[in-house]
Amino acid sequence: MQYVYMIFQNGISMAVPMKNGGMKAWKIIFYVVLSGIATGIGALIGSIVGSISQKVISICLSFAAGAMLYIVSRRIVTRSQ
Fold it and tell me: I need a surface site. Which of 58, 69, 72, 79 has the fewest CB within 10 A?
């Protein structure tokens, strides 16, 4: 049930700004469904890669954490100058 709530919450958080921006309802539905499909494919790939070994999942998570730190720190440094 929590997964359904999360999907609904992500869809609403995408749809409201699009609707406020004046986008047509069919385009909003298309983009939200397309995003949901991409999320499902990513979860499938993640479960396949994660089932290989704990070492692989730790490498993937450390790469993701490093990428997020790089992006956030780059934005903070750029805005502070």
Answer: 79
Q: In the 8-state DSSP scheme, what is residue 52?
A: T
Which tokens is 76 given? 């903070």
* Helical residues (DSSP H) of 1-81, grouped into ranges: 2-20, 25-50, 54-80
- pTM for this model (two decimals): 0.57
Non-local (6+) Cβ contacts of 28 within 8 A are 14, 15, 18, 19
Handedness of CA 8, 5, 66, 56 (dihedral sign): negative
pLDDT digits (tens, 9 = 90+) for 19-70: 898 889 899 889 888 888 888 888 888 888 778 888 888 888 899 999 999 9
